[in-house]
């Protein structure tokens, strides 16, 4: 394995980490429309809170997929073809979310606004759940043949481990979104978001215990990479404890950073367990290694130069956009839903 191959494996993990940190709270806010908002005015406030950012945050997922296609085409081909239905449903959820913002804003009736509020919540629930299922299946292992094709049945995709993984990622995104709401909004919504986080964090710890148990049972994380896996698992729990402390002590920034870092920790744990593979086969001989899946050294070299130029520009723009829209949302116009 070359240094460039290792670098791009790390960079793809980093891109997914940034995506889940940024888009994770978008998903959480979208789900919160049906959790804490009680009327159309409040739903409008929640949508306004993520309005300047949600589409830019989704770009990180596209970037991660594009980087995978260019740097590890064999990984991309095996993953995207084998998980075609899950990825199709994920894309449908993302499209549903995207059109909901625009269609709700132009709806002239309360029924229309209510409908597109529901589609936003459904899309925001579906995308993290499906992505959580896919990544959990990925580390559990799939029935790969010698050519890297996934020859799986229903139970290979939908099983106890993948469902728990999907629920865990969805719950983490919901809590991250609620922490963002506490940071971004005022009044009743902020108070309700804090109250819900206090209820959900104990549920999260139960889910983390279940996920950790299944991780030990269903994967080789703790036999192949025991030290790093334990460190990352403990770190995830500690970050969740910090976020819980911030929720109970009304420390909004602390809760938000800790919940986002928890999502990053989950991505790091999964990529740590994958290494040095990119696809885990039920038959170890059919697992796809980083060294087998990558593009040529020349391609990786060119990509590194391009990334070194443009990624800082994108990061600078992202930071600037959050700085510009750093004020708390205060809705001036009230739209009745009755």
Automatic annotation (TrEMBL):
The keyword Magnesium does not apply. Belongs to the cytochrome ubiquinol oxidase subunit 2 family. PANTHER family: CYTOCHROME BD-I UBIQUINOL OXIDASE SUBUNIT 2, CYTOCHROME BD2 SUBUNIT II. The chain crosses the membrane at residues 6-37, 83-103, 115-135, 157-178, 199-217, 229-248, 253-275, 295-323. It is a multi-pass membrane protein. The lineage of its organism: Bacteria, Bacillati, Bacillota, Bacilli, Lactobacillales. It comes from the Bacteria. Its main location: membrane. It is found in: Cell membrane. It holds the Pfam family Cyt_bd_oxida_II. Keywords: Cell membrane, Electron transport, Heme, Iron, Membrane, Metal-binding, Transmembrane, Transmembrane helix, Transport. This is Cytochrome d ubiquinol oxidase subunit II. It comes from Loigolactobacillus zhaoyuanensis. Signal peptide: none annotated.
């Amino acid at each position: 394995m070359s240094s460039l191959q290792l670098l791009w494996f790390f960079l793809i993990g980093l891109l997914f980490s940034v995506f889940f940190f940024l888009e994770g709270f978008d998903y959480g806010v979208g789900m919160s429309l049906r959790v804490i908002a009680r009327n159309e005015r409040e739903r409008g406030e929640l949508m306004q809170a993520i309005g300047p950012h949600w589409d830019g945050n989704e770009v990180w997922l596209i970037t991660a997929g594009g980087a995978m296609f260019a740097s590890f085409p064999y990984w991309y081909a095996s993953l995207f073809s084998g998980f075609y239905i899950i990825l199709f449903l994920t894309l449908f959820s993302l499209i549903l979310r995207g059109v909901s913002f625009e269609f709700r804003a132009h709806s002239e009736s309360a029924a229309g606004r209510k409908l597109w509020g529901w589609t936003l919540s459904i899309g925001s629930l579906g995308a993290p759940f499906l992505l959580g299922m896919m990544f959990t299946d990925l580390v559990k292992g799939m029935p790969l043949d010698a050519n890297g094709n996934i020859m799986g049945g229903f139970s290979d995709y939908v099983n106890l481990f993948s469902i728990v993984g999907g629920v865990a990622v969805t719950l983490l995104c919901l809590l991250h979104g609620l922490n963002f709401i506490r940071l971004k909004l005022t009044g009743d919504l902020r108070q309700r978001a804090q109250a819900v986080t206090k209820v959900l964090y104990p549920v999260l710890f139960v889910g983390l215990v279940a996920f950790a148990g299944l991780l030990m049972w269903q994967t080789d994380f703790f036999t192949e990479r025991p030290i790093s896996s334990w460190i990352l698992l403990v770190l995830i729990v500690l970050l969740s404890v910090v976020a819980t402390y911030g929720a109970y002590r009304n420390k909004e920034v602390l809760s938000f950073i800790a919940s986002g870092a928890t999502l990053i920790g989950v991505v790091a744990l999964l990529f740590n367990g994958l290494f040095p593979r990119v696809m885990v086969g039920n038959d170890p001989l059919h697992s796809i290694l980083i060294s087998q899946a990558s593009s040529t050294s020349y391609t990786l070299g060119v990509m590194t130069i391009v990334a070194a130029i443009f990624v800082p520009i994108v990061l600078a723009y992202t930071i600037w956009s959050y700085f510009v829209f750093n004020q708390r949302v205060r809705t001036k116009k009230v739209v009745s839903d009755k």
